[in-house]
């Protein structure tokens, strides 16, 4: 989640969920939700092809529209998909990276999603 706050840590990350398989192993991807569509777009622009734990991640709009998140604080347009995450990454590393520039916005929630 921290990774998704971005370079200066000013993107408002509401959720960072690393997807896990039934055995508890990371699938190497995450869904990150921001407080606004503007922050989600900035994350895509600023954080795509950045390095997290030695791997280049890719960030794009979340196209799945998980119904469990519908009606949340920002809605589906506020979510991004993050791929190629290290299997060893914890939600905290993702959260830290995804904050962006500035370090002035708080993260409200982070989880690890299990199948």
TrEMBL record:
Instruction: List UniProt keywords, sorted A-Z.
Output: RNA-binding
Keyword Metal-binding on entry: no
Q: Which GO terms describe its cellular component?
A: cytoplasm; nucleus; ribonucleoprotein complex
Q: Which GO terms describe its molecular function?
A: mRNA binding
Determine the domain of life of the protein's source.
Eukaryota
What single Pfam family name could you report for this chain, choosing any that match?
Answer: RRM_1
The RRM domain extends over: 1-64
Keyword RNA-binding listed? The answer is yes
Please give the InterPro entries that the UniProt record associates with this protein: Nucleotide-bd_a/b_plait_sf (IPR012677), RBD_domain_sf (IPR035979), RRM_dom (IPR000504), RRT5_SRSF_SR (IPR050374)
Q: What is this protein called?
A: RRM domain-containing protein
The organism encoding this protein is: Hemiselmis andersenii
């Amino acid at each position: 989640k921290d990774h998704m706050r971005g370079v200066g840590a000013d993107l408002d990350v509401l959720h960072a969920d690393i997807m896990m398989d039934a055995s508890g192993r990371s699938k190497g991807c995450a869904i990150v939700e921001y407080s606004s569509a503007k922050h989600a777009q900035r994350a895509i622009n600023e954080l795509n092809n950045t390095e997290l734990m030695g791997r280049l991640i890719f960030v794009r709009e979340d196209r799945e529209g998980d119904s469990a998140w519908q009606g949340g604080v920002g809605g589906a347009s506020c979510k991004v998909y993050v791929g190629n995450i290290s299997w060893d990454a914890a939600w905290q590393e993702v959260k830290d990276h995804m904050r962006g520039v500035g370090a002035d916005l708080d993260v409200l929630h982070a989880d690890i999603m299990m199948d």
